[in-house]
Hints:
- 4 copies of one chain form a homotetramer.
- By secondary structure, the first copy, chain A, is α/β, with parallel strands linked by helices.
- Chain A has helices at residues 14-23, 32-45, 68-80, 85-90, 130-133, 149-164, 186-191, 249-261, 302-322, 342-353, 373-382, 410-427, and strands spanning 49-52, 98-104, 109-115, 170-177, 200-206, 214-216, 224-233, 271-281, 290-299, 326-335, 360-362, 386-392.
- Chain A folds into 2 domains: 8-222 and 338-427, Aminopeptidase (3-Layer(aba) Sandwich), CATH 3.40.630.10; 230-335, Alpha-Beta Plaits, CATH 3.30.70.360.
- Helices cover 33% and strands 20% of the residues of chain A.
- In chain A, the strands form 2 sheets. The first copy, chain A, has an 8-stranded mixed β-sheet with strand order 1-2-4-3-5-12-6-11.
- Chain A is globular and about 80 Å long.
- Chains C and D meet through β7, α8, β8 and β9 of C and β7, α8, β8 and β9 of D.
Amino acid sequence: MADAESPPAEATSRVERRRAFHVYPEPSWCEFLTTSRLVDCVEAIGVDELYVGRDVIAPEHRLGVPDADVRERWRERAAEHGARPDVLDATTGGTTGLVAVLEKGPGPVVGLRVDIDALPVEEATGDDHDPAREGFRSQNDGVMHACGHDAHMTIGLGVLAELASSEFSGTFKLFFQPAEEVLGGGRPMVESGHADDLDAFFALHVGFGHPTGTVVSGVEKPLAIRQTRATFTGDSAHAGSAPQAGRNAMQAMATAIQNVYGVSRHADALTRVNVGRAEAGTASNVVAERATIDLEARAGTNDVLAYLTDRVDRVLETAAEMHDCDLATTTIGEAPRVDSDDALADVVGAVARGHADVEAVRPSAALGASEDATYFMRRVRQTGGRATYVVVGTDHPGGHHTPTFDIDEASLDVGVDVLSEAIRRTLAGDANC
Amino acid sequence: MADAESPPAEATSRVERRRAFHVYPEPSWCEFLTTSRLVDCVEAIGVDELYVGRDVIAPEHRLGVPDADVRERWRERAAEHGARPDVLDATTGGTTGLVAVLEKGPGPVVGLRVDIDALPVEEATGDDHDPAREGFRSQNDGVMHACGHDAHMTIGLGVLAELASSEFSGTFKLFFQPAEEVLGGGRPMVESGHADDLDAFFALHVGFGHPTGTVVSGVEKPLAIRQTRATFTGDSAHAGSAPQAGRNAMQAMATAIQNVYGVSRHADALTRVNVGRAEAGTASNVVAERATIDLEARAGTNDVLAYLTDRVDRVLETAAEMHDCDLATTTIGEAPRVDSDDALADVVGAVARGHADVEAVRPSAALGASEDATYFMRRVRQTGGRATYVVVGTDHPGGHHTPTFDIDEASLDVGVDVLSEAIRRTLAGDANC
Amino acid sequence: MADAESPPAEATSRVERRRAFHVYPEPSWCEFLTTSRLVDCVEAIGVDELYVGRDVIAPEHRLGVPDADVRERWRERAAEHGARPDVLDATTGGTTGLVAVLEKGPGPVVGLRVDIDALPVEEATGDDHDPAREGFRSQNDGVMHACGHDAHMTIGLGVLAELASSEFSGTFKLFFQPAEEVLGGGRPMVESGHADDLDAFFALHVGFGHPTGTVVSGVEKPLAIRQTRATFTGDSAHAGSAPQAGRNAMQAMATAIQNVYGVSRHADALTRVNVGRAEAGTASNVVAERATIDLEARAGTNDVLAYLTDRVDRVLETAAEMHDCDLATTTIGEAPRVDSDDALADVVGAVARGHADVEAVRPSAALGASEDATYFMRRVRQTGGRATYVVVGTDHPGGHHTPTFDIDEASLDVGVDVLSEAIRRTLAGDANC
Amino acid sequence: MADAESPPAEATSRVERRRAFHVYPEPSWCEFLTTSRLVDCVEAIGVDELYVGRDVIAPEHRLGVPDADVRERWRERAAEHGARPDVLDATTGGTTGLVAVLEKGPGPVVGLRVDIDALPVEEATGDDHDPAREGFRSQNDGVMHACGHDAHMTIGLGVLAELASSEFSGTFKLFFQPAEEVLGGGRPMVESGHADDLDAFFALHVGFGHPTGTVVSGVEKPLAIRQTRATFTGDSAHAGSAPQAGRNAMQAMATAIQNVYGVSRHADALTRVNVGRAEAGTASNVVAERATIDLEARAGTNDVLAYLTDRVDRVLETAAEMHDCDLATTTIGEAPRVDSDDALADVVGAVARGHADVEAVRPSAALGASEDATYFMRRVRQTGGRATYVVVGTDHPGGHHTPTFDIDEASLDVGVDVLSEAIRRTLAGDANC
């Protein structure tokens, strides 16, 4: 049975390794034990260079960083579960993540990025949920690998091992990025400079409704996104004896929520809005002094996202003003839309079509979600390189971000095979990079 | 300097005692150290009977009881600060409070009730806030005696000491009631039976906008109240890739909040509604599965409260249904309106007019707030007795339930003097009970 | 059967007269035939001075004046039904109303004000509605005397006739005020100067839940009120092909409505808010360019009304801004709170108690409604006089302003008797004016 | 200068004809003079069969029919402006529209549909608006050809004239459909049976953002749509004296509006919602008894429209229930999504590419709007035929449905040329129908 005491570096199969990650999920910027275990795994494989923590994250560009006490609690828990002191040291304050490098002579520089954080979701307990039945359900209450990053890490390590034992001339960089779920880790990892010399870049996701045996070689439409935390501050008052003395942050919040959902669709591109978290006031008999909401806007183009965030900001400001409250907003996550390059996607497609377990290859598909891998893609594009975002299909019983999400472990091998071969071909010049 | 190590039983003045209570506030149903200290104080005075915890609370009638882990945390903290094991034992699980009895022969049975719990308010830190400047600011973060219950306990103990050393024939019962702020302790204390034989009953509050030197001998209009916790449960979904799959508890909540505030006024009596606390969802990119709000309705009559709660319930139910969510509601606080009896109020008025430091006596005033002392008043009335609710004026810089609330300590003596003399006269038959 | 061809001046009984008014109701500022008929009636009684139209209305102070074409249509209809050319001339443009004066030597100047306009209510047609069954239902579709002003005019004329045939020394002024329902006629009539010399002033209303046989001698609490028309102007757009191009006045309006109803109650006095009329947009497939709402705020004190209108204005402004719309507001009705004087109310009370058909006399009662008679009361008070607002009880099956409102015609005589005698006594000095 | 006295049948150019239509716009189901003039024009050209009014409309399938008095008023106005008695007779009650048929021997049956109604938009008056400056602005206040149907009729007549003078074997049917703007005329015209034998079908629209010189040969995505009128009925009450007695239709309406706009987007297809018209209550001092809104939902697929209308209906029902109101809804417009057939669109494309004034031909484009031409397209498809929806580009200064909408009259010739040649080729078998 997988548990926190069965570290992934000792796993004898990809399935065991994935389960070892699954059982110990950590939230964004708190991936302390995860980083430590990845360092173990990478060292077991053997690489030429390894950068950890502060060396791969430009801290001032981080978004969505939780409070110090939250980070500290996860750090202590990681320490209790055997996290390496050198890794804890390098990641102090929440600079998690690592970059592993294989350098084999002159040639292209190719990158692969996998993300490593988990979600604030309480994992399902029913017997029809494999991780529960098979004993590798999350041991960290209220946190879950509900988006497949456990599989991403496993595939990433698989690709690294394959390439470590392959002959090629060039450089391979494997980016283990923290804080994707809060869209907060992509930019600071890019700003660290490690992606500045890439000629080609691959990002990876499992699932998104594509079944096991399907590969999407180049995602077309990751939604541009901005996530915001808005805090309304008014004045509390006794709700019975002096309600008029209050400046009611609860009403400002409710008005904002209703009207954010009412922001108009746009003819040029699809739009999404969501207020996903709210916390307000203290007790029923006190007019609420403070209310905080976490919300997001997404759009099919960067321009329409700008339209959408303008409207959302207007709603927040006027809702505050309507109830005489102050407003403070902060961006907690952000990612542009950047599409895949056909040339690089074609390499993946060609490899996938040749794989025995791949039944369908799609040249492109809309993602319907957002991704801060687009920061890597934009940087690579800016420096003349090519990038593609690959979806490795996997049957998943529950939707992404839900308590019953799970993957079909058969897709792990497909992911490793297709990506390592595509990277090999790219290193060999197939994408003409 | 007052601190948790300066227990009230060792205080040499009422001011010191009040400050000792002020520095260690405990929330409703968690008044473990407070109960222990009151037992010490009562024993130091000496009484004929003393009932503590489970003997004074009918647990099935409690409302607003916090989760077990919250209660346990406060119990442990109380233990660390020296709470008596016998009191911790009697109050296990949150049956806090006590009743002290002086029996001096045949005669009327007269009760006084003071409340002992504090509020979830973060106390002010500025130098213009006396408790902060003078060093007796709350040591329990986020909890504060912001409604004067520290003064109530001090006055109650003062009255007990006065009566203990007085000659009278009859019985005096002093009720230290927990959980008034959540309107959850009045009914279970009454249901314990200790109030069944009262001929006269006094309740007490400081302030409410009446300055030091004013006494209101009989409050006319405590608002009838019902406090409710409502939880909307839908389905989470990925806000970008499958928003339509969600059943959005956040939207149900916002619609409910907006419409609860819109419930119509009533021509027959004043009304109040407030949604004072909200908590919903987990993250901006997830359609919220669950949302919880604490809200209340108050009215000038019990009939208009029934009107109001009907409308509020309708709003909650249809807001849930509108967004395809389930609704669960639970009453977390409740109190009827019961007015003061003139005959008993007149005794207080006569005493107050004779007090050197009392400048103004008002026969009645509207309270504008709610109070579960009305459960005592209703019971006393049902068994043929009389009841009055007295306001002892005190200058207070900030409003009740706000971070800068404070009292004028000069009002402590006024409270003790007026109430002990009024009770003495009532025991002597002045109210014709 | 009463109809528009049975003018009130030819009625042989008060019941006939009231029915003649009932059958031909006219909206505020369109009381052309009503004014003409009242002039006929007053001339039939005989007075010393008679002022009509422009002589009794300061037009720049009018509120709630309908559009010119609406006024013109009613004027034409009045002409068709035989309105006197001289009256039509004097009331051109909507300066309706008249003041009749009896001067009988030196002495106090006493005024009585009755209102003459009707409401935009479609009268009930059922057989249980007396006016329908008895054949004097409104002949003017969508307009109805649903607040008893037909009775007020009848009582006013009865009082005038009584006083015309009485001996007294002093002056009696009878004010037939237009546009009370829109709270738009009180102030311009006062500003005309006719009320500047009053020593005593009576206003009158039937019903308000008080049954036939009850008289309230001095209303205590007419609510202060402000009525507003708010127009939101954005941009239209095709709702399917370019929704984002719209600036949606419909959303601004809905947000405003929801939040106006949510404006907080006030501890100092009762409050009321209502959005009673809305009109927005043109068709389902066009983003609404324009939305207009008529709303009102009322309060138990003038200060609390100021609080309320501040909050309402803030809601309107920010709701417009939230949806990028322009806002234009105009006050369409307004009246302060002014209470009755005990001394004058006592005169009414004494008279009423002596009347055979009066079973109950109340010294005061809250009105729960608003009234622009308070402009008269305020002016009289300012010039050293006294004022009272009298309610003459009448059984009424439907509520005021509803399609089934009706009066008990037995109350007409009570009204005439009590008011004419109270005025006689006031002229004789009983109120010490 | 064009005016209602310059009938289109006497126009000597397409520009004059279009202006003659523009100056006299009529709303949906009130196209009495328009139908009469079209009959004149068709007769002047000469056809084999002509069906008018009741012969081309199945009245029970009509949607969005205005009240009888509105229809009667337009009918009278048409009569005053010289509408033919036989046409007025055939269109009594609002069965407007006509079908003209050219039968030239055996062969394919090909149809063209143009729509003939105008919009409730007040036309712009500024000098930068050509129709205003050039003197052919709408003479019918508040109604305007703001969507180019004046151009559609002109092009349709041009095509008819071209084909009347052409050699071909087969049948050409020209459908002049009423009430497209309310999506109410397509289905009843199809249900009349005249479209049952079509082998090929063309529909036509100008503009939609495509400039003069562009032709879209086959629109891909007319949005599926449902338009609804919802009426909330509660109880009125005096807003000051008895607000609680009301059942507030205004609040039900505002809650519905806010939440209709908040209905979630869908991942499978684009969605649109709009509340475009609202009318509620009577006066500010009366709690509104009745509120009516016109709203619509559109979606990129028929399935997503079903999702959307389910959610919208749920909002309407629960908003009514929330405020204790009754709800009545009726569908006032409806159209499915049906895409164009490539084979037929290709014929149009080929023709367009050969036209000297056509600079750009797009094989397809999303419409972003809705169209009840899709009823024709669905019927044709069901009976084995082919259909395409063509956009003839035209520069238009203002957006569709706005007061400054206008067309570039140069596009009239392009429309006639391309469509008549495409129809000729289809009759000749080019589309393989």
